[in-house]
Automatic annotation (TrEMBL):
Cofactors required: Mg(2+); thiamine diphosphate
Origin superkingdom: Bacteria
Catalytic activity: 2 pyruvate + H(+) = (2S)-2-acetolactate + CO2
Lineage: Bacteria, Bacillati, Actinomycetota, Actinomycetes, Jiangellales
EC number: 2.2.1.6
Protein name: Acetolactate synthase
Domain Thiamine pyrophosphate enzyme central: 204-339
Alphabetized InterPro entries for the sequence: Acetolactate_synth_lsu (IPR012846), AHAS_TPP (IPR039368), DHS-like_NAD/FAD-binding_dom (IPR029035), THDP-binding (IPR029061), Thiamin_PyroP_enz_cen_dom (IPR012000), Thiamin_PyroP_enz_TPP-bd_dom (IPR012001), TPP-bd_CS (IPR000399), TPP_enz (IPR045229)
Keyword Membrane annotated: no
Pathway, per record: Amino-acid biosynthesis; L-valine biosynthesis; L-valine from pyruvate: step 1/4; Amino-acid biosynthesis; L-isoleucine biosynthesis; L-isoleucine from 2-oxobutanoate: step 1/4
GO molecular function, one term: acetolactate synthase activity
Top-level class of the enzyme under EC nomenclature: transferase
Any one cellular-component term (Gene Ontology): acetolactate synthase complex
Family as reported in the entry's similarity comment: Belongs to the TPP enzyme family.
Amino acid sequence: MPQGQPTRDNGTTMTGAASLIRSLEAVGVDTVFGIPGGAILPAYDPMLDSQQIRHILVRHEQGAGHAAEGYALATGKPGVCMATSGPGATNLVTPIADAHMDSVPMVAVTGQVASAAIGTDAFQEADIRGITMPITKHNYLVTDPAEIPRTIAEAFHIATTGRPGPVLVDVAKDAMQAMTTFRWPVELDLPGYRPVTRPHAKQVREAARLMAAAKRPVLYVGGGVLRARAWTELRRLAELTGFPVVTTLTARGAFPDSHPQHLGMPGMHGAVAAVTALQKADLLIALGARFDDRVTGKLSSFAPNAAVIHADIDPAEISKNRVADVPIVGDCKEVIGELIPAIEAEFAAGTRADLTGWWRQLDQWRENYPLGYTPAENGELMPQYVIERLGKLVGSDAIYVAGVGQHQMWASQFISYENPNTWLNSGGAGTMGYAVPAAMGAKAGRPDTTVWAIDGDGCFQMTNQELATCAIEGIPIKVAVINNESLGMVRQWQTLFYDGRYSNTDLGSRRIPDFAKLAEAYGCVGLRCDTAEDVDATIEKAMAVDDRPVVVDFGVHRDAMVWPMVAAGTSNDEIQIARGMAPEWDRSED
Ligand SMILES: Cc1ncc(C[n+]2csc(CCOP(=O)(O)OP(=O)(O)O)c2C)c(N)n1
Ligand SMILES: [Mg+2]
């Protein structure tokens, strides 16, 4: 399969490094996040002359990787990061793992020591290909300059097709320094890589038959629907069938939160109605979802009476955790697109179960157990209030990027996501430090969109150096630090499961560092807010700044907890709405 258009330099003699940059240009790269160093240095020289590629010099390679993820999720194009060999490359390991867990299309280009030195423990040598083997969709070591264009073309093809994911291209320094003839377009050589996108018609018909007859169905929507850009089809399917919808942590925004058929997020900190709907369902239609343990709770007790239709582009996901009654391998956009006429045909033939009783039940759960929180007795600022106000004042056109911890769960719960790809977070890996660099990448890719990072005080201290990058490169992100002076989510587990013995979760109550001052030191605007009365005015002040990044340090009550909660390893049936408080199930419901 030839890749791309013939380019002006086809057949020209140049260095491997120039060929690398020309190849990146040929696949359409406009932004690269990275840091140079010895082994990758040859590539940085021709990059200086590129009219197409903007290189954003980050302060830590982890930031480059998360920025590439944020860029990818915000734009729909693959994100690109670049690093030198050894420690530069190993600093990319966390974001590569993160992109792998959340199926984010990303290409990481690393310099490797010269091919003759590979395997000798040369200066700054690390076997990054070996290290990233289990956390990349595919990876390459290039030692022949003639292989550079094809490798780059394949890397982008693999990263963006089928189930998206990270691909690493490690290029030996001597391959970049040697002369080569640049050839483009190239033939991809990928025997055995043929992702199935079109679903099997028989499976689709079988799924439609089950769906038309189901009395308690739920559309269990995962991040795959966003990756497949299938939100329009999803909405049509939901409205055609009248089925309730739940969106997982990685799928928030795939279906509007305000839609009357949306029950919210399922899982460990999901809404009671969403969690319980899955438990009581007679049919789950899993779309680009992977029955993650954070959704299923104790797997053996998950949705015990449900038949399962499982549609996923990755056949390895199907029946991995829960056996599928109707497996459908395919791209969610195509699967849903074909399900719609198949269901219309069922309905036209007169098969259609009455869902009135199911909806009566769902509405009761929604009404009785809405998301909420109890204000602190001492009147301190509540984190949920800050996040709720932020969502209201900033609106649903902005992109929100969370760190990992309590603030992440509240940001998922208390902001209304109405549009796809407006909620970015580290779902599968749960990587603290994701928010600031991912927000930077999102803003670099979508400069006209307001981008808010909602970060924890713990997470923020892992990657806030990228504020310098944002200030210098003119990437005016906004950061709300939900400062509870602790590693709040871990502290919550210590409260609940370790008798309140707070081992090493206190980040210190002396406000070290002072985040507002730190922000100023980084060339950003730094604001601080400690009372509910000041929240709106502070957010508005932050919104008024558009020439620099802004950081708002929200000092909040430290004992707030995330509810509802299904404790790890327990059944979803044991969901608690507050400490020691289970919903009062109406026995007639069972
Ligand atoms: C890199 C990394 N290290 C450790 C953890 C474990 N962990 C999960 S949440 C959390 C606390 C996060 O604290 P903070 O950023 O202040 O958020 P909060 O929960 O207080 O809102 C920790 C340590 C993690 N998820 N990622
Ligand atoms: Mg915290």
